[in-house]
Amino acid sequence: MTAVLGADLGRGSGPLTGVGLAFRRALRADRWFWLIWVLVLWSFIPATATAYRSTISDDAAGREVAAGLAANPTMRAMLGPPYDLLHVGGFTMWRVGGFGAMISGVMAVLGVIRATRAEEEAGRTELLRSAAIGRHSLLAGAGGLGLAASGVLGLLIAASMVGLGTPVAGSLCMALGIALTAAVFVGVGAVTAQLSASARTARGVGLSVVGAAYLLRAVADGSGSGSSVRWLGWLSPVEWAPLARPYAAERWWVLLLPLVVAAGLIALAFSLEARRDHGAGLRAARPGPARGGEAFDSADALAWRLARPGMIGWGVGLIAFAVVMGSLADVFETVADSPELAERFRRMGAGAADLRLAFFVAMLGILVVLVAIWALQLVEHIRKEEESGRAEAVLATATSRARYLGAHVVPAVVVPTLVLAAIGVLLSLQSGIATNDASLIGRILGGALALAPGVWFVLGVGVAVHGLAPRLALVPWVVVGWSLVVNWIGGVLGFPESLLKATPFGLLPRIPAEPMAWAPVIVESVLAGLLIAAGFWGYQRRDVG
Amino acid sequence: MRYVSAVIDISGLVKTFGPTRALDGLDLRVEAGQVHGFLGPNGSGKSTTIRVLLGLLRPDAGTARLLGGDPWADAPALHRRLAYVPGDVSLWPNLSGGEIIDLLGRARGGLDGPRRAELIDRFELDPTKKGRSYSKGNRQKVALVAALSSNVELLLLDEPTSGLDPLMERVFNQVVAAERDRGRTVLLSSHILSEVESLCDHVSIIRAGKLVESGTLADLRHLTRTLIHLESDSPPRQLADVPGVHEVQVTGHLLTAQVDATAMSEVLGILAGSGVRSFTATPPTLEELFLRHYDGTS
After folding, report:
1. Does ipTM top 0.85?
2. Which of B147, B163, B211, B238 is least enclosed, having the fewest CB within 10 Å?
3. Which of A306, A395, A543 sits opposite B92 (nearest CB)?
4. H-helix or E-strand containing B45?
5. Contact B86 A389 (CB under 8 A)
6. Digit-coded pLDDT (tens) for A1-35
């Protein structure tokens, strides 16, 4: 690290020669990426702060609501520990601060890999490296840009929260906490970009780290106040910002954790980069088989083979999420022991008679959006195949357009749906066994499957866009992004009911909190089918490549 | 009967991409058994033509027939009877070359195992490397082996030797010559003139999406000039007055000139009486044909 910092940053021939150029190049290439991520992420924070009084009024009823939110294990598991919900700053930090810190991690991982490994894999950095550019300059430039974006995010948060009249110390602590969390994940992205020659693998590993960090803190926070696993939260980088307690007697020293870890990870990334060849991962590429297996003979076999690693990663990740979250359900037993708490929740819950059921409904709501993101990624794969010219190679064989598209779309429908069903079972399995209630598992499975049309609808939008108007590839992502925003924060921001329902999942019945409603399930399934059919129709009529 | 035997029959083909007119009324006819060179500079529409023939692009106007069928409507069936090598080969990063060859061959309807082994050997390809680690030339070899280990009627080769070293280019030439002898039809798009010259019996030249010239190599040679070098006691300056002789230059005993085919016998008559010490005549290369058509004056 000292060698890196001590290098001549201007001219000369150190490993950081030309780092300024590398920084400007990354900025030029990815300015929209960072700008949009930073602005959207930041905007939730002042928006939530502004909406505070409409959620928690300044009277006894408001204090009642705040106490209910603070004690609700579902909310704690999803959002983190509340410290002070009776002031706008503390509420904002709890409601969007911790979650925002996690999303900033997603941004940082994607952003750093995008400017490093993805460029390297595409062969674009080789030319740059042939110029007077040091070995570490491109990584330093990309990492520097990531850190700068984290800093800008922090500045925006601090300025807006101070501007809204919240205490300066709390604003700074929250801003610094989120910015440093982003910095940690700049480090995570920089390290994972060194591991494998594939940007896709790097992204998968990096985002798994974010997911694992979130899961770790969900377990720590969701397991109840007297739990023996509360300390797990300290291991999770996305928990450090909340643990610094912005607006609630700030513990500034906690922020040393992300600072040290970010520096350590970035140093590790540089030392890994020094050990590997350009274009390679840490391990030398292993040779593959000289012949394709007997069954490796068609577009279907190819599509399955290409999707397999992602299927395993997403499938295992989502199922682990469901199992871990399912294990938290027993916390409701302790809540039920306190009649006062139980009564409070009953009044607040999403209409569910049973607190535990409300928890399952909330978890299914999160998980189904993740399943939809995964399904959409599988469709995204078709677009990448076409852009790279590899679709052309397959379509030049005796493979029809319909067969080719079907080879990718069928697994994208079937496998996520099966995993969604597995999620329903595994989420409720432990609780069902503990309470000797097998019917619970059936009901939660039904709840999961009732949301499946939403996944199919998102998929349908993706397939329709690919078939009819491939240039609009961003549209299905906007649909999913919108669902995430509404799920996460639509209620707090006081979106009208019609807007809250205007997502692929909003109109579907939230079983078991609500009774089964066949009409929306059937209508949305048919709609999804029509969208997919329209995509096939268009794909067979348009130019490819 | 001529019509029946046309493997590729394109007439008046138009394809636009937004404001760009990639193909502007193209005509192209390839008969069975021909090795047909498809020449044109970058961006002249060669790849677009081939991609229309593969049913990847839908023409805006005109007709294209391939192996007696409609390349758009009958694509999968027609593709059983042809193999394609793109100019810019993109491979799946995590599949080995051998897997890719097998996949593409089998998806086309079958692979000739012994031939596959022979081609891998001749092209000195390592089939166990992963797609991401092949160099450009080796990616090209993967696509070539995949296409050539087949028993199809038609080979569509789009600048197939880009990235190959001269040794491998020679192997390629031998392999395609063998294919020609087996009666296969080949459409070979290229801007490498020597390649077309040594392999092709017919040539079509395309420029800005239009056919500008088509015929046998011999036909096209009529259209251009032979370069002569002469060393003689008294170089005949009056050569410059003969119609069909161009750019006569005399320096001492040396004379160079360009002679149209029509003027050749008259020129030789004059030269015979000029005390020739040495004489060379260089037939036009495709390079010159090419320059003549694309230097902007034609």
Report:
1. no
2. B238
3. A306
4. none
5. yes
6. 444 444 444 455 688 888 888 899 899 999 999 99
Residue A352 has pLDDT above 70, yes or no: no
**B→A interface, C-beta within 8 Å:** 51, 54-58, 75-77, 79-80, 84, 86, 88-104, 106-109, 126-130, 132-133, 143
List the single residue in B86, B89, B133 with the smallest CB-CB distance to A285.
B133
Query: In chain A, what residues touch B98 (CB-CB under 8 Å)?
Result: 288-292
Closest residue on chain B to A295 (Cα): B103
Tell me which fold the domain B225-294 belongs to. Answer: Alpha-Beta Plaits (3.30.70)
A297 and B56 within 8 Å at the Cβ level: the answer is no
CB pair distance less than 8 Å for A296 and B99: yes
B2-215 architecture in CATH? Answer: 3-Layer(aba) Sandwich (3.40)
Indicate yes or no: CB of B75 within 8 angstroms of CB of A400.
yes
Closest to B53 measured CA to CA, from B162, B200, B157: B157
The CA-based diameter of chain B, rounded to the nearest angstrom, is 71
Contacts 24+ apart (CB under 8 A), A164-167: A164/A46, A164/A49, A164/A50, A164/A88, A165/A88, A166/A49, A166/A87, A166/A88, A166/A89, A166/A92, A166/A247, A167/A89, A167/A247
In 3D space, the residue among A422, A419, A426, A233 whose CA is nearest the CA of residue A329 turns out to be A426
Backbone torsions φ then ψ of A215, nearest 5 degrees: -65, -40
Contact A290/B92, CB-based, under 8 Å? no
CB contact under 8 A, B75 and A401: yes
In angstroms, the CA B36 to CA B196 distance is 8
Q: Report residue B223: phi and psi, to 5°.
A: -85, -5
3-state secondary structure A343-391: HHHHHHCCCCCCHHHHHHHHHHHHHHHHHHHHHHHHHHHHHHHHHCCHH
What three-state secondary structure class fits B178?
helix
Tokens 């020659």 identify what position? A197
Q: Nearest residue on chain A to B113, judged by CA atoms?
A: A291
Domain boundaries, chain B: 2-215, 225-294
Give the Cα separation of A461 and A473 in Å (integer).
10
Q: Hey, what are A414's tokens?
A: 């079937």
Quote the CA–CA distance of A524 and A506 in Å, as a whole number.
Answer: 11
Distance CA B221, CA A491 (A): 79
Q: How far apart are the first and last CA of chain B?
A: 34
Do residues A9 and A19 touch, judged by C-beta distance below 8 A?
yes
CA torsion, ordered A398, A401, A403, A404, to nearest 10 deg:
90
Nearest to B76 among A398, A541, A542 (CB): A398
Residue A193 to residue A281: CA distance in whole angstroms: 8
Write out pLDDT tens, residues A457-504: 999 999 999 999 999 999 999 999 999 888 878 877 888 888 888 999
For residue A7, the one-letter residue type is: A
Amino acid at the residue A226? G
Tell me how far apart the alpha carbons of residues B205 and B197 are, in angstroms, rounded to a whole number. 13
